[in-house]
Design a protein that fits this description.
Length: about 450
C-alpha cells in the first residue's frame, strides 16, 4: 500500500474530529438539524485550520440520507464518493486554477440541472478570492437567484479580497488558528497510533512552528519521522526543522538584559556558524522579548506558547529586566527590523543592534523621569509669591536625593535634544546661585553643564 501522508490520513471525516472550530461546526450541525440551510457559505481563515475539511464534511452531512441529521454516516455511496472526490453532485473547484469567467459560466450552466443521486448539488470553491472580477460577477448572478437544489461553499484565506456583493449573499464563518495545546494533543494521538516515540516537548516545538495550522503540524511531523525514524529525540527536532535552538535565544535575551555585549557577540558568532538565517533569528529574538513583556503584563493568561520550564526562565528574566526596559528593547527591535530587511550585511546589523540594546541598561526609565518632574513641580507650586519675584535666587535647595542623580539625568536630557538653545542662553538667565546654600557646588556644576551643552 502506498504511503499516505499524515495530513491526508488524519483528515477529519466527521465534525467531531475537527479541532479548534467548535463555534462553527456546532452552528452548521444545528442548521442541518433544524433545516435552516443557507444557499451559500463562506469559510475564511488561515491555511490548514480545517476550512476545506469542514466544507467536505458539511457537504456529506447535507447529502447523507442515512446518518443522523448533521452527522454523515461515512458509509453510504454519497459519503464515500465525496470522501474520494468522485461525487458528481459535489464538485470541488480550485479557485486558483479555474478563475476565469468561462469556468464560472460552465458552472452556472451545470447548476441548472437537478442533482443525480443526492438531495443537493453542492459546489465547493477553494481559494475563491482568486477568481477574476468578471468571474465574480457571473457568480453573483447565480447567488442572487440560486436554484433551490444548489448550495455553495466557498473557502478562502483572504476574505477581504472577496467582493462585498458576494460576501453579503453568504453566511460567513471565520476559522481560528488552532491553539498549541490542541495541536500537541492531536500530534500525540497520531504518534501513539503510528508507534512513533517523541516527547511532548518535541511535539510542542513542531506545533509552535506550525503557527496554529494543523496541516502544517502534520507535515512537519512527517518530515521529522522520515528523518529520525520511529524514535525522535528532542535535540533532533530543531536540527531537522531548522528551528533556532531555544538555548541561543534565551542566552541572547539574558545577555541583553544584563548588558553583556561580549556575550551578545558570542551568540551572533554561533548563529552565524551554525548557518541559521539571521533574519529568522532576529524574528525569534523579537518573539522572545514579546514573551518576556507579556509574562509581566498578563501573567497566567496563556498568551505564551511555551513549555513550563521555558516559562519559568521567561518569568525570571522578565522580572530582572522590568516592564519599561522590555518595552524599550522591543520597540527598538521593531524599529530596526527594517534595517535588516534591506542590508547586505545582516550579521553587522544584528551585532550593532544587540550591542546598542546592551547599553540601554544605563538609561533612566521614563517613569523615573516623570517622578522627578512631579517632585520639581510640587516645589515650584509651593513657592511663596515673594520667592517667585526674587529672580536672582535659585528656586529652592536641591533635595538630598537629587545630587547623586544629576549626572545620570543630565546626559539623557542633552542627548534627547530637549535643551532649547535659545531659551537656555546664559545671557537671558540671571540666575546667581546663592553661595551660602549648602550643596551649591553641585547645582552650579549642573547649570554650567547645561549652558555648556546649549552653546
Ligand atoms: Zn452517508
Amino acid at each position: 500500500m502506498p504511503y499516505e501522508v499524515l495530513a491526508r490520513k488524519w483528515r477529519p471525516q466527521v465534525f467531531e474530529d475537527v479541532i479548534g472550530q467548535e463555534h462553527i461546526t456546532q452552528t452548521l450541525v444545528n442548521a442541518i438539524r433544524t433545516g435552516r440551510l443557507a444557499h451559500a457559505y463562506i469559510f475564511g481563515g488561515p491555511r490548514g485550520v480545517g476550512k476545506t475539511s469542514v466544507a467536505r464534511i458539511f457537504a456529506k452531512a447535507i447529502n447523507c440520507t442515512e446518518g443522523e441529521p448533521g452527522i454523515p454516516c461515512n458509509q453510504c455511496r454519497s459519503c464515500h464518493e465525496i470522501t474520494e472526490g468522485k461525487s458528481v453532485d459535489v464538485q470541488e473547484i480550485d479557485g486558483a486554477s479555474n478563475r476565469g469567467i468561462d469556468e464560472i459560466r460552465e458552472l452556472r450552466e451545470n447548476a441548472k440541472y437537478m442533482p443525480s443521486a443526492s438531495p443537493y448539488r453542492i459546489y465547493i470553491i477553494d481559494e475563491v478570492h482568486m477568481l477574476t472580477l468578471p468571474a465574480f460577477n457571473a457568480l453573483l448572478k447565480t447567488l442572487e437567484e440560486p436554484p433551490p437544489h444548489v448550495k455553495f461553499i466557498f473557502a478562502t484565506t483572504e476574505s477581504h479580497k472577496v467582493p462585498i456583493t458576494i460576501l453579503s449573499r453568504c453566511q460567513r464563518f471565520d476559522f481560528k488558528r488552532i491553539p498549541l495545546p490542541k495541536i500537541v494533543a492531536i500530534l500525540e494521538k497520531i504518534c501513539k497510533h503510528e508507534d512513533v516515540h517523541i516527547k511532548t516537548t518535541g511535539l510542542s516545538m513542531i506545533a509552535r512552528e506550525a503557527e496554529g495550522s494543523m496541516r502544517d503540524a502534520e507535515s512537519l511531523l512527517d518530515q521529522v519521522i522520515s528523518f529520525a525514524g520511529q524514535t525522535v529525540l528532542d535535540s533532533q527536532v530543531p536540527e531537522i526543522l531548522g528551528i533556532i535552538d531555544r538555548g541561543l535565544i534565551f542566552e541572547s535575551s539574558s545577555a541583553i538584559i544584563e548588558g553583556a555585549s561580549p556575550r551578545c557577540l558570542a551568540v551572533v558568532e554561533k548563529v552565524y556558524n551554525q548557518g541559521y538565517d539571521i533574519k529568522e533569528f532576529y524574528r525569534a529574538l523579537m518573539a522572545q522579548f514579546r514573551n518576556l513583556l507579556v509574562s509581566l503584563i498578563a501573567p497566567g493568561k496563556h498568551l505564551i506558547d511555551m513549555s513550563e520550564s521555558d516559562k519559568e526562565e521567561i518569568k525570571h528574566q522578565a522580572e530582572m529586566a522590568g516592564e519599561e526596559k522590555l518595552q524599550i528593547v522591543l520597540n527598538f527591535l521593531i524599529v530596526r527590523e527594517n534595517d535588516l530587511r534591506f542590508t547586505s550585511y545582516p550579521r553587522l546589523v544584528l551585532e550593532t543592534t544587540m550591542i546598542k540594546l546592551c547599553s540601554l541598561g544605563g538609561y533612566l526609565s521614563f517613569g523615573d523621569i516623570m517622578k522627578k518632574m512631579a517632585v520639581l513641580e510640587e516645589r515650584v507650586i509651593s513657592l511663596s509669591p515673594e520667592q517667585t519675584r526674587e529672580n536672582g535666587k535659585p528656586l529652592s535647595d536641591p533635595p538630598s536625593d537629587w545630587i547623586p542623580n544629576v549626572k545620570e539625568v543630565a546626559p539623557d536630557i542633552a542627548s534627547m535634544g530637549k535643551v532649547d538653545a535659545e531659551k537656555s542662553n546664559p545671557t537671558d538667565l540671571k540666575l546667581q546661585p546663592d553661595k551660602s546654600v549648602s550643596g551649591e557646588k553641585t547645582w552650579e556644576d549642573f547649570l554650567q553643564f547645561v549652558f555648556g551643552k546649549s552653546k
